[in-house]
Amino acid sequence: MKNVITEVEEKLKSKEYKLTPQRQQILEVLLENKDKHLSAEDVYTLVKKKAPDVGLATVYRTLELFVEFDIVHSINFGDGRKRYEYGDDSEGHHHHHAICLKCGKITEINEDLLEDIEKQVSKDYNFSVTDHELKIYGYCRSCKI
């Protein structure tokens, strides 16, 4: 975790921002919950346990700053709440998501299912693809009808 914090600190410094103690607390919560898709309110609740002085507005501003610096990714699963997850672009494309329409469970799909389509779009439409996102909606094992 220390390596990531140092990297984020350097990334912010490169554009004359600081990794304040509040921002570091928010980053640590995201790192501790890498496998979850947290809303700003979720992050706020977890940060408050460690740093009661951090406000919800600070969490929102910090998350948007982290998105701007490509430290975290924001995802909308169609339920009106933006979710955030720590993401390292050095691994290539983002993973995909399967979303249960009944219970809301989100399952990560790590296989890159759209690579061939990207190549075809690039070739056929002379289009430079930089990223993609795939959301699959249905019912999880527990909720299947």
Describe it.
This protein has 145 residues and is α+β, with helices and mostly antiparallel strands. The protein folds into two domains: 2-90, Winged helix-like DNA-binding domain superfamily/Winged helix DNA-binding domain (Arc Repressor Mutant, subunit A, Orthogonal Bundle); 92-138, Dna Ligase, domain 1, CATH 3.30.1490. The chain is 41% helix and 17% strand. The protein is built from five helices and six strands; from the N terminus they run ααβααββββαβ. It has helices at residues 2-13, 21-32, 40-50, 56-68, 115-125; strands at residues 38-39, 72-76, 82-86, 96-100, 106-109, 135-138. The strands form two sheets. It has a three-stranded antiparallel beta sheet with strand order 1-3-2. Strands 5-4-6 form a three-stranded mixed beta sheet, with no helix packed on it. α3 crosses α4. The radius of gyration is 17 Å and the shape is globular. The model has no long low-confidence stretch (mean pLDDT 89). Keywords: DNA-binding, Iron, Metal-binding, Repressor, Transcription, Transcription regulation, Zinc. This is Ferric-uptake regulator.
